[in-house]
Amino acid sequence: MTEENDFDVIVVGAGISGIGSAYRLQKECPDRSFVLLEGRPNLGGTWDLFRYPGVRSDSDMHTLGFSFKPWKAAKSIADGPAILEYLEETVDEFGIREKIKFNHQVSTAEWSNEKDRWTLRVSNKETGEAFVYTCNFLLMCSGYYSYKSGYTPDFEGVEAYSGKIVHPQEWPEDINYEAKKVVVIGSGATAVTLVPAMAESAEHVVMLQRSPTYVVARPDHDPFSALLRKILPEKIAYYLTRKKNIFGQNYIYKLTRKDPEKVKEKILSGVRMALDSDFDVERHFTPSYNPWDERLCLVPNGDLFKSIRKKKVSVRTETIDRFTSEGILLETGEELKADIIVTATGLNLVTLGEVEFRIDGDLVDFSETWIYKGLAYSGVPNLISTFGYINASWTLRADINSSYACRLLNHMRKSGTKRATPRLRESDIDMPQRDWIEGFTSGYMKRSMSEMPKQGDREPWLNTQDFYKDKKMLSRNTSLEDGVMEFV
User: 413-460, pLDDT tens digit by residue?
Assistant: First the structure.
């Protein structure tokens, strides 16, 4: 270990969360040394990894963008390259790029109570060189899914298929789907993005789903923002649009909890208006669950519906029996022939970037911990991690977390303490155990929920998934000395 690899704070990940944390550290903790360790050769996380056709945000950029850097482009629902360009601009504008160590993959993080330090084992993925980094405080901004591979079910007969099978997370640059028959398996955010994008040049695209998802059409431009930008300074217009959109996201989500049937009918009426009268909306776009029990899918300017009306896309709601040499055999006995099959079947949810954590040599099992204010873990010192919202923009939660982290660091400096650890109070010992995220039935969540920390039935052991509640719980008006966070 060299002194140049020893820092006050290490940020793991240089995506939206990591870049936002770096900005906060520079602004609010200017006396702290820090570095960002990024396992990939480029910054951006999701927005650099995913290269499939049409890749875009499904949150508006006035809330997915940073609070400190206005989104200036006309489109509020932006494509992946535009988002990546925005992130590149951010790191250059605020002098963050020189803080990033690319190709630095963290494999283990071990805390020493004797030294009050984290020791990170890091390897350079390009050269194979090994490093040791140390710090007092660790910010995990590594996202929520495995970057190694996406999730693909075990389909029978895959080896018999003679065409090309592609997962969106591993999209090949040289794939040619022009004038080809394509089947996209899935009905989530990735599928509804891919399908109309591929349909522009493919012969025909089938969206094959086991069950429907709620799909909502929305313009990719925000007229409210456009109006404000004409009459107000850029930063004020952005701030007001952001406030409006945060309120709107929260309002709609709460309405789905309060009156799901009303929201369901509103969504479905929009789908009926967007499609031909003979299209079977009941079968193909009417889920068995309530809105926001799984994430709503956004289709900007109704592009998916337009592709269906043009007969470039068809939707099939069926169960797969097996793959064949020429395509997919459905349980109905019908065969869907395809030159290319895209398995838009989801992600593999992981805890804290698949890093192995230890405290004084003992392995940390995060499923045995309790979540503290949605960002830290019982019994684990000097660690904050970011997992964004399922029902709103990721960046909203990331921004709250980084602000809280800086406040905590400054309190530790002022109080002369080296360690901040959430501890269960005696009154918390018998808390009922609740899932880390409740009321959300998406497959990638259900598959991995048992590996996640628990939440309780009282503050601060909550993961609310509610921006306004979190903002209040982590407010500057609340004391860091809450009887739960132990400072040593």
Answer: 999 999 999 999 999 999 999 998 887 777 777 787 888 999 999 999
Prior bond of 233 cis (ω within 30°): no
Q: What band does 203 get if pLDDT is binned at 50, 70 and 90?
A: very high
Q: HEC string of 269-306?
A: HHHHHHCCCCCCHHHHCCCCCCCCCCCCEEEECCHHHH
CA-CA distance, 356 to 344, in Å (whole number)?
A: 29
Instruction: Say which DSSP state 221 is in.
Output: B
Closest to 209 measured CA to CA, from 345, 53, 390, 52 = 345
Cα–Cα distance for residue pair 229/223, rounded to 1 Å = 10
The pLDDT of residue 474 is above 80: yes
DSSP 10-42: EEE--SHHHHHHHHHHHHH-TT--EEEE-SSSS
CATH 3.50.50.60 maps onto the chain at 3-147+348-487, 158-220+273-343
Angle at CA of residue 419, ends 413 and 425, nearest 5° = 120
Q: Which helix (H) or strand (E) holds 341?
A: strand 340-343
φ, ψ dihedrals at 206, nearest 5°: -105, 125
Helix H or strand E encompassing 307: helix 303-309
- Structure tokens that stand for 56 in this block: 């875009």
Dist. CA 18–CA 23, nearest whole Å: 9
- pLDDT tens for 291-326 read 988 889 999 999 999 999 999 999 999 999 999 999
> Is the per-residue pLDDT at 1 higher than 50?
no
Let me know if 1 is exposed, middle or buried by CB neighbors in 10 A (0-12, 13-18, 19+): exposed
Lowest-confidence region among 120-129, 211-220, 434-443: 434-443
**CA-based nearest residue to 141, from 374, 353, 370:** 353
Say whether 110 sits in a helix, a strand or coil.
strand
158-220+273-343: CATH number: 3.50.50.60
| pLDDT single digits (tens) 11-25 | 999 999 999 999 999
Our measurement of the distance from residue 34's CA atom to the centroid of its chain's CA atoms, rounded to an integer in Å, reads 24
CATH superfamily of 3-147+348-487: FAD/NAD(P)-binding domain (3.50.50.60)
**Segment 359-386 mean pLDDT:** 97
Residues composing the chain: 488
SS3 109: strand
User: Residues 384, 443, 177, CA angle at the centre, nearest 5°?
Assistant: 105
pLDDT score recorded for residue 3: 59
Report whether 375 contacts 460 (CB < 8 A): no
